[in-house]
Amino acid sequence: MNSFIIFLIFVTISLSSAIKLPASFKRCKSNDMTCLKDAIQDALPKLKDGLKDLGVPSLSPLVIPKMTIGAGNIVKLVQNYENSKCYGLSDSIVKEVSLDMDKGKLVIDVEGKLAEMNASYTINGKILILDVYGSGECMIRIEGLKGQFTLDLETYIKNNNKYLKGTNADLVLHCEQATFQFDNLFDGNKQLGDNINKVLNDNWKQIYEELSPAYMKSIAISLLNLTNKLFSKIPIQDMFLN
Ligand SMILES: *[C@@H]1O[C@H](CO)[C@@H](O)[C@H](O)[C@H]1NC(C)=O
Ligand SMILES: *[C@@H]1O[C@H](CO)[C@@H](O)[C@H](O)[C@H]1NC(C)=O
């Protein structure tokens, strides 16, 4: 083989095996939590619209194709949501980051002013003692957020490079206020619909406490999906400075 062909093969292999983190992303040593906190804070708005070249979907809206929430004690109905769009996560303030590569754990403490989810819903069941059914568009808004995103990590080798992979994700978000709006309840009977929305909003605290673990699990799984798209493209050696 002549040297030009060897050169071409070499270039092809290096291109396919080592996509770099976009230059605008800050890089840190994996044990430098102060740097990581700034780097993640800096990355959030850059992830807002996603990274087309790397196949990373948008962080805001974060799209959840399908979500089913089981019946609880107050909200005794199964809720099916489709095409949920969550806005606001890219505006989060990163308060603290802890990354333990040996234990495979990333924990990010966040705060935020506001997050909103718009979705198509279908529900049928009871809220407290009231019969409720309907399908249409809905909006859930939370304000004054404080919480934690946790990611379990493992590493694997691909084409002689080591990569990170998230195996599980959890999200806990407490809020100071939640607002619910379900349009078109009772096939569009406005009076009955307004009444149910008022019940939901008058009891937002208990309702949010009951429903949020299931909402947050769905959001966490979408965040895991997004993170893994990024992790699968960038070898660990190119993600961190050490
Ligand atoms: C979400 O729904 C609310 C209430 O219907 C609406 O005011 C808002 O504009 C929607 N947001 C987006 C981004 O579509
Ligand atoms: C994972 O992300 C891809 C886009 O990169 C999207 O098409 C898919 O629906 C996502 N899956 C979930 C469960 O969010």
TrEMBL record:
<dbReference type="GO" id="GO:0007623">
    <property type="term" value="P:circadian rhythm"/>
</dbReference>
<feature type="signal peptide">
    <location>
        <begin position="1"/>
        <end position="18"/>
    </location>
</feature>
<dbReference type="InterPro" id="IPR038606">
    <property type="entry name" value="To_sf"/>
</dbReference>
<dbReference type="Pfam" id="PF06585">
    <property type="entry name" value="JHBP"/>
</dbReference>
<protein>
    <recommendedName>
        <fullName>Protein takeout-like</fullName>
    </recommendedName>
</protein>
<comment type="similarity">
    <text>Belongs to the TO family.</text>
</comment>
<keyword id="KW-0732">Signal</keyword>
<dbReference type="GO" id="GO:0005615">
    <property type="term" value="C:extracellular space"/>
</dbReference>
<keyword id="KW-0090">Biological rhythms</keyword>
<dbReference type="InterPro" id="IPR010562">
    <property type="entry name" value="Haemolymph_juvenile_hormone-bd"/>
</dbReference>
